[in-house]
Amino acid sequence: MSLSLDDIKRVANLACIEVSEAEAIAMMAQLSGIFGLIEQMQAVDTSTIEPMSHAQDVVQRLRDDAVTESDQRELFQSIAPKTEAGLYLVPKVIE
Amino acid sequence: MQWETVIGLEVHTQLSTRSKIFSGAPTAFGAAPNSQACAVDIALPGVLPVLNRGAVERAIRFGLAVGAKINSPSIFARKNYFYPDLPKGYQISQYELPVVAGGSVKIRVGRDENAYEKTICLTRAHLEEDAGKSLHEDFHGLTGIDLNRAGTPLLEIVSEPDMRSSAEAVAFAKTLHSLVRWIDICDGNMQEGSFRCDANVSVRPLGLDKLGTRCEIKNLNSFRFLEKAIDYEAKRQIEILEDGGVIRQETRLYDSDKDETRTMRSKEDAQDYRYFPDPDLLPLEISEAWINRVKAMLPELPEAKRSHYMTIYSLSAYDAGVLAATREMADYFENTVKLLPASAKLCANWIMGEVNGRLHRESADIAQCPISSAQLAGLLLRISDGTISGKTAKDVFDAMWRSEYGSDADIIIKAKNLKQISDVGEIEKLIDNILAAQPQQVADYRNGKEKAFNSLVGQAMKATKGKANPVQVNELLKKKLTE
Amino acid sequence: MHRHGFGIYPSLFYDLPRLANTMLNYSLKQLSTLLAAKKISSVELTGEFLGRIKVLNPNYNAFITVDEKMSFAQAHVADAMIASGQAHPLTGIPIAQKDIFCTKGWLTTCGSKMLSNFISPYDASVIERFNAAGAVNIGKTNMDEFAMGSSNETSFYGPVKNPWDITAVPGGSSGGSACAVAARMAPAATGTDTGGSIRQPAALCGVSGIKPTYGLVSRYGMIAFASSLDQGGPIAKSAEDLALMLNVMVGFDTRDSTSLQRETEDYARNLAKPLQGLRIGLPKEYFVEGMSADVARAVEAAIVEYRGLGAEMVEVSLPNTKLSIPVYYVLAPAEASSNLSRFDGARYGYRAPEYTNLNDMYQKSRAQGFGAEVKRRILIGTYVLSHGYYDAYYIQAQKLRRLIAQDFAEAFAQCDIIMGPTTPTVAFDLGEKNSNPVQMYLSDTYTIATNLAGLPGMSIPVGFGDNNRPVGLHIVGNYFAEAQMLNVAHQYQQVTDWHIRMPHKLTA
């Protein structure tokens, strides 16, 4: 299977990764190769098989509803790119 | 052409757990920014979610309260999109296999002779995590992100498009609002965002089965906005269609200042959320035993209470509805009636009239009522045993509310000397004096002038400063005049 | 540098004075005995390995971060523990930690520019366990960026070199850890394995490594690549050392929903068991194509050795195993595309220096912060999850994953252990497969299926192939069969010496 340049750009946009035209073209060739490999999957009839999401057949464990975490804002924000008044700052969000 | 409005609601209720749905950080409202955002909530590299039992239990409680199916297993999925208040770049939600499937809610729309009941079906209710908050106040042109709310558990309740007017939508939202507080899964605080509605609105020619193209209106944080936004949106859509236009499927935002909805994003820009089962969370299994335990602890539900009040206390549907609006109100009513079992109607009238009126004027709710149910019963007892008249009782109530001489009716009656004069001898003596002083009015009455009787009653009441038992005054006066 | 113990750091290790040649090959147990007998202090031992790192690392690039001060501080704590009689088998022993494990106060990069400024504010559960055991963190090892790679060439910090041949790759993604152990810069190291990232570099560097059953080692604080496949595990010189490492690393963790709650076991308990009657399954699909002649020779020789130890060989079939690579390259990128969305430049990590608005900040920070291979996989993953492709790719891959797991279940009905080559070839040259992702992906052809099934897998050195580069034997056990696998490996290592051979021409 081969991917189009539009596919690459659409997916890059969804993934929020800027790609130049040249990168997109290179990526298109590489991804098409990889999808060539992936397409081998389609040869198998799996109509009666249940998808397997987890390696172990176990169920979700539940946590008691208790507060176990204390405020570590100062530590966490010491590695943040930009903060003020306890808030993480990012460029203006436009609705 | 006649148009029909079709509405479905999506309601986000914040669940009243102590800790977040996937982390041990607290959920209390109003803390300093990011002071309640732990490593999991700010999505540090390597952190993992673990599901809060309290959130699941609340979802089960809701499912049972609306007669829904509790799915087991149910599956958590990731909804992927980038937004600064979404630290992981995905929201953990449920997509296929939500924890609650189906169910229904009975609503009552309107009052008096136009009132009607309707059943609104639910599609599903699923667990998910709330996002943080973006603060757009000026940080030198930047946006501030507070992740305290990130990870607060939400139950998103989705209805079928079963509503046909904004009134029905509001009635449904209010019924749900009352229910989630009733079963104690959500504090219902709309100002703090604990209960938020999105409305899917479409219109179609009356009689047509096929649904029109819908628009989703986001973030309706009061019942009034919900009503106005739906009315505006339906009108907008009808105008477009009547002008020969077509409705574009889109997400719209209600602007309460301008009372209008406007485009937020069109369907073409709709995100591809790439839902897939969250590999960090395993299938959620809910045992029959757990469901039964929750069922056993479920309080009598508002719907059952209402019919109970109607049959046992002979209350009207409307009265029963008001008294069963919240668990606190129902408790107040029931605790009052318990002390005055023969006077249920009197209790109902007083709670709906004086108590509610007063609370409403002071924007308070029943939990903040300064007069306890026992104290109210004490007051109403004095009406029913004839100690005071209903009119005097209102003065006593006022004094109790203001805590003049405390909130005990008997103390106030005594302190203010409001006890009704019910002594036959005393009233007879009083009437004899009035009759002697007013021979003309006595004659008028005997000549058929009814008005004269009222004037004589009035004089008796005036002479006792309203304390004479009006029933006795009437009876004795009639007796004397016909002698 | 603060020097302790043996003061001189020679250019070639065979010149190391005193304990050098012997001590570099000491097992963890031997080191522990020396420490307990106060023949050497943890501070001295730590100094010795830090010295070796200082000499060798500039050429081999096995470590991203070495922090002598912090290592020595831990060594002092360990010495105090030993002095007060509270020592654990690993107390005072230097352990190299893969830079995927969040380590409080340490730069934790995951081999990426994206985290090139990330001083972790917390410890991964695995790190906590080593700390509690009194082990010394000797440094954070280099790795393929976000564990995506099979050659360590995708690291933002540059490739790691193979100690057996400086022109060869060490394998990946735990290439730094495998190199550190092979070059004896650390007695043992941690790794993580999503598709072979412990076993393949262990094989290519001639050391031993085990990926336990999925769910045994907590993933909390282990930076996620593909959550349903990732599993931490140790790389060391011998099966016996792996057992001691597993004893520390394995354990139930309430902070990881996929962590399994099981009785604690001593992974060294079965090491001495004879292999008489052991049924070894040889998948016929592994021995027909793809394997190069030199690898085949070494693997077959190992099988002969096992026969000599009393094992019997059974032919088994894993018919769907050939689909492992396509399935893996759908599932792992899908999970990764979502797992890596948190790296957006908003709260930590790399933020592009210039941008015009919020979306531009995201797009540029991620474009500049991630390397080419990571971007490739994010795009693949985004594509297979996107609207209209989900069923054909993601769901189909999950269904095939079940078939692959079922193959193993059937095979284990006929045998106790499965063996084959860990890799189709010995270590390839640096740069050789760089430009061809598909060729690179095929080097994990034998290891991926066990991750998909969640089974434990290990690799032990069984000789040398072309250019005197090491060959690894792949040992796959049934779920929770780690103690048995270690026994199988240990018995082999009792009668062979591949595992104590050292690269003798290290470039310093």
Question: Can you offer a commentary on this structure?
Answer:
The complex is a heterotrimer of chains A (95), B (483) and C (508). With 95 residues, chain A is an alpha+beta fold. In chain A, 35% of the residues lie in helices and 9% in strands. Chain A has helices at residues 5-14, 21-38, 73-77; strands at residues 62-63, 83-84, 87-91. Chain A has a two-stranded antiparallel ribbon. In chain A, a hairpin with a 2-residue loop joins strand 2 (83-84) and strand 3. Chain A is flat. The two termini of chain A are 38 Å apart. The model of chain A has no long low-confidence stretch (mean pLDDT 94). In chain B, strand 7 and strand 8 (116-129) form a beta hairpin. In chain B, helix 7 crosses helix 9. Chain C is an alpha/beta fold and 508 residues long. Chain C has a domain at 13-272 and 483-500: Alpha-Beta Complex (Amidase signature (AS) enzymes). Chain C contains 16 helices and 11 strands. In chain C, strands 1-3-2-4-6-5-10-11-9-7-8 form an 11-stranded mixed beta sheet, with helices on both faces. The chains are: A alpha+beta (95), B alpha+beta (483), C alpha/beta (508). Chains in contact: A-B, A-C, B-C. At the A-C interface, helix 1, helix 2 and strand 3 of A face helix 10, helix 11, helix 12, helix 13 and helix 14 of C.
Question: What distinguishing features does this structure have?
Answer:
heterotrimer; B: 483 residues; alpha+beta; Arc Repressor Mutant, subunit A; ten-stranded mixed β-sheet; 15 helices; C: alpha/beta; Amidase signature (AS) enzymes; eleven-stranded mixed β-sheet; 16 helices; 11 strands; disordered N terminus
Topology:
The complex is a heterotrimer of chains A (95), B (483) and C (508).
Chain A: H1 5-14, H2 21-38, E1 62-63, H3 73-77, E2 83-84, E3 87-91
Antiparallel strand pairs in A: 2-3
Helix pairs in contact in A: 1-2
Chain B: E1 3-14, E2 51-52, H1 53-65, E3 69-70, E4 77-80, E5 90-93, E6 100-101, E7 104-109, E8 116-129, E9 133-139, E10 142-146, E11 153-159, H2 166-182, E12 195-205, E13 215-220, H3 223-242, E14 250-255, E15 260-266, E16 276-277, H4 288-297, H5 302-312, H6 317-323, H7 327-339, H8 344-361, H9 373-384, H10 390-401, H11 409-415, H12 424-437, H13 439-446, H14 450-463, H15 470-482
Parallel strand pairs in B: 13-14
Antiparallel strand pairs in B: 1-11, 1-12, 3-6, 4-5, 4-16, 6-8, 7-8, 8-11, 9-10, 12-13, 14-15
Chain C: H1 20-24, H2 28-36, H3 42-60, E1 63-65, H4 68-83, E2 94-98, H5 125-133, E3 136-141, H6 175-182, E4 188-193, H7 199-205, E5 208-211, E6 231-236, H8 239-249, E7 279-283, H9 293-308, E8 312-316, H10 324-339, H11 358-369, H12 372-385, H13 390-411, E9 417-421, H14 437-441, H15 448-453, E10 457-464, E11 470-477, H16 482-495
Parallel strand pairs in C: 2-3, 2-4, 7-8, 7-9
Antiparallel strand pairs in C: 1-3, 4-6, 5-6, 5-10, 9-11, 10-11
